[in-house]
Amino acid sequence: MTVDHRIAVIPGDGIGTEVVPAAQQALEVLAERGGFSFGFDHVDWSCQRYLQTGRMMPEDGLDQISGHDAILLGAVGWPGVPDHVSLWGLLIPIRRQFRQYVNLRPIKVMAGLPGPLRSSEGVDFVVVRENVEGEYSEIGGRLNRGLPDELAVQEAVFTRPGVTRIVDYAFELAAERGGSLTSATKSNGIVHTMPFWDEIVRERAANHPGVEWRQEHIDALVAKLVLRPGDYDVIVASNLFGDILSDLAAAIAGSIGIAPAANLNPERTFPSMFEPVHGSAPDIAGQGIANPLGALWSASMMLDHLGRPEAARDLMVGIERTLESGSIRTPDLGGNATTQELTDAVLAALPA
After folding, report:
1. Going from the N-terminus, what domains does the chain have, and what CATH number goes with each?
2. What tens digit of pLDDT does each residue of 99-151 get?
3. What predicted TM-score, i.e. pTM, was given to this entire model?
4. What does residue 338 show for φ and ψ, rounded to 5 degrees?
């Protein structure tokens, strides 16, 4: 059977296996409404697989999914499997092999779900995180393990092509949004990589004269995000800084449970990957109470990436209407609804 969009599905661990079915259900409903179709290929790549086989995914795993149109990921991580094993055994290889150098994290405070900050109303910004190099490097090592003079060295890697392409993406996004760009830096203390980052941002800014931009040191920036989150539109940051900023920003929006992420290969030579950012949450796994909104929002981002903007918009309308009604919440949002009940409410709220 011919399908319009072939999706590789990696439910992963914990609540990932509970929220991915919610996202898949929404995608199927919207595809039927829109007259297109999905084909879903599920794989068991996870910490459970690692405990059984010693590998998060098979040796040819990336070859198996390289031809798909997109990847839908649930969550990865489980007690007994070190986080660096799950990350470097699955997520980072996918991001790097498939050149998913943009990690896109939209942040929006929605009606009906006020953020914890008194000044959070109307917040709507995007964190653009460099996703394949920077501080998350394999270069380095350990010396004299267990001895008094034990040593660990970790090298950050910033390349001109890598910084240029993420900065260009962020400037172009800021231009589309009609807003401004903030570059996260720490060039007063990190004397090589961050001044290099700043130089490239300044160079690329010249190609986008219509975008107002500034740079801010990361320590001051996190404080300002808490004090005045409405001042920001697009924030571009290195791998580590973007990772930290995007989780802080999700908390500003009211719950990390609603936060989505897209790992994008903008050239579309490889599949992009879409995932909620809440993690596997072993403490609530198996109870059927996980918040599906992060997965549903990620599915909306996938639809948009696949050229289905109307379906993507409809799904976001369903999410926003459900939150605004205030009538149904999972426990993380102060309610007692199940994952399926909240999913059903979102689908019932889709525009006719």
Report:
1. 1-102+256-352 (3.40.718.10), 114-252 (3.40.718.10)
2. 999 999 999 988 888 778 777 778 899 999 999 999 998 899 999 999 999 99
3. 0.94
4. -85, 170
